[in-house]
Amino acid sequence: MSAPQNRDGSGRWPRGISGNPGGRPKGLAKATRELVGDDGMALAQLWWDIARDPMRRDSDRLEASRLLADRGWGKAASFEPVEGDPLDLAALEGAAEEFRRMVLRLAPQPEPT
Asked: What is the CA 33 to chain-centroid distance, rounded?
């Protein structure tokens, strides 16, 4: 499938071009807060009820627990796996050895006796 005309070759939007020029519908956040309440207590209570209900599916209870944990304590950090040596210790050791050689060249040499 080829990228639409307004995207670059990788399928991304070019700088300065929005993929959603109209943005979020105006008033959606306000309407949601009017329905749920400004503090979100109704949603938290719903998620808590679902999480504690043994008659609910485990997947629903786990999702409710995840939502509560994410909102209460923040989402856990996620990291991409790193292949190989992320610090490149071999290169650091080589640089340290080169630095040592340079310092030794600058140091005064002991006189032969």
From this structure: 27
By the 8 A CB rule, do 26 and 20 touch?
A: no
Residue 19: helix, strand or coil by DSSP? coil
CB atoms within 10 A of CB 36: 14
Sequence-distant (≥ 6) Cβ neighbours of residue 21 within 8 angstroms = none
Can you give the pTM of this predicted structure? 0.46
Backbone dihedral region for residue 27 (phi beyond 0: left; psi -120 to 50: alpha; all else: beta): left
pLDDT tens column, 40-61: 888 899 999 999 999 999 999 9
What are 8's two structure tokens?
């670059």
Question: How far, in Å, CA of 103 to CA of 96, rounded?
Answer: 11
Q: Which of 80, 81, 54, 50 is nearest to 66 (CA)?
A: 50
